[in-house]
UniProtKB/TrEMBL annotation:
Name of the protein: Lariat debranching enzyme isoform X2
MF (Gene Ontology): RNA lariat debranching enzyme activity
Species for this entry: Phoenix dactylifera
Gene Ontology biological process terms in this record: mRNA splicing, via spliceosome
SMART domains assigned: DBR1 (SM01124)
GO cellular component entries: nucleus
Start and end residues of each Lariat debranching enzyme C-terminal domain: 173-286
Length: 288
C-alpha cells in the first residue's frame, strides 16, 4: 500500500535540530539529546536518532559539521558562553558512530548538512548557475559534510532529505553496481516564491501511523552510553560496553509499550510581556 508523507503528517511531524539562534533554543535541544517531543505532534530525533512511524524507519543527524569540534565530546553545558553557543550544535563523532552501528534498513534519513560530493549525483551545473558561489567547492569536491557522506554510504537509506544550503537540489545515488538506490532531496527556505515544499509518496504498510521507539536504536544507545563523552576529549572506544542489549530493550518495550509518552510542557510558554532577563531561564535547564 502506498501512503504519502502528506497524509502521514496529519498524525506527526519529525525533525532534526537546525542551527539554533539563542541560548534558550540551544538549551532546549541539549535537554532532549536523545530526542523527544518538541511540541504537540512534533518529535525531535535528537542529536542522532532513529524512530519508527508505522513500519517506516526514520533516522537523522542534527547539527552542522565543523572539523575542529568533530572529535570532541559534548563538553558544552548551559549557561553557554559566546564560544559554546556556536559549537554546541556542531556534529560530533560519537553521534555518527552510533548511527554507523545501525544494520536494519533505514527508509528516510534527514540531516541539516548535505553529504560531501552529493552534487556529483545530480545536475550540479544547474545548481551553480543558481548559486554561483558554490562553484569552486563543487569543482574541488569540498561541498558538504564528511560524516554525512560516510553515513550515506553506510546506511544506504531509500530517501535522504537535507537543508542548510537554501536551494532545491535532487540527486539519485546508486550504491555499487547492483546495490540499492538513495533518492536525495534538499529544499529551499520557507519563503514566498521559493522551492521549499515537495510531496513524496513512500510505500508503507497500512497504519496506524504514530511515532514509536526503534528497538535496534535503543539497544545501540544503551551500549554506547558507557562511553558518553562529556569533556573535550575524543571518544574512547576501549570502554565500549560489549553486551548486546537488543533483548533487554525488547523486554522493556513489551512492558511499557513502544510509543513515547504524550507531550507535556516542562517550562512556561513564551510570554512577550516579560523582560528579556526573565526569558532565558532555559539556559539553566540541565543544571536543575
Amino acid at each position: 500500500m502506498e501512503n504519502s508523507i502528506r497524509s502521514m503528517r496529519r498524525s506527526s511531524t519529525w525533525r532534526k535540530w537546525r542551527t539554533p539562534r539563542s541560548t534558550s533554543s540551544c538549551a532546549a535541544g541539549t535537554s532532549r539529546y536523545y530526542g523527544g517531543w518538541a511540541a504537540p505532534n512534533i518529535y525531535f530525533l535528537g542529536y542522532s536518532g532513529v524512530i519508527k512511524f508505522g513500519n517506516i524507519r526514520i533516522g537523522g543527524l542534527s547539527g552542522i559539521y565543523k572539523p575542529r569540534e568533530y572529535h570532541l565530546g559534548h563538553y558544552e553545558m548551559p549557561p553557554y558562553d559566546e564560544n559554546d553557543i556556536r559549537s554546541v550544535y556542531h556534529v560530533r563523532e560519537y553521534d555518527v558512530m552510533k548511527l554507523k552501528e545501525v544494520k536494519g534498513q533505514i527508509d528516510i534519513f534527514m540531516s541539516h548538512d548535505w553529504p560531501l560530493r552529493i552534487t556529483e549525483y545530480g545536475n550540479w551545473e544547474k545548481l551553480v548557475r543558481h548559486k554561483p558561489f558554490f562553484r569552486q567547492e563543487v569543482l574541488d569536491g569540498t561541498l558538504g559534510s564528511v560524516p554525512a557522506a560516510e553515513l550515506l554510504k553506510a546506511l544506504q537509506p531509500r530517501y535522504w532529505f537535507s537543508a542548510h544550503l537554501h536551494c532545491k537540489f535532487p540527486a539519485i545515488i546508486q550504491h555499487g553496481e547492483n546495490g540499492p538506490v538513495t533518492k536525495f532531496l534538499a529544499l529551499d527556505k520557507c519563503l514566498r516564491g521559493r522551492k521549499f515544499l515537495q510531496i513524496v509518496d513512500i510505500e508503507a504498510d497500512p497504519g496506524p501511523y504514530e511515532v514509536q521507539y526503534d528497538e535496534e536504536w535503543l539497544a545501540i544507545t544503551r551500549k554506547f552510553n558507557s562511553i558518553f563523552p562529556l569533556t573535550r576529549k575524543s571518544v574512547q572506544l576501549g570502554g565500549l560496553d560489549k553486551q548486546d542489549y537488543q533483548q533487554w530493550v525488547r523486554n522493556k518495550l513489551n512492558a511499557r509499550g513502544a510509543k513515547p509518552f504524550d507531550f507535556v510542557p516542562t517550562v512556561p510558554s513564551f510570554d512577550p510581556s516579560q523582560p528579556l532577563s526573565n526569558r532565558s531561564h532555559c539556559g539553566n535547564l540541565l543544571r536543575s
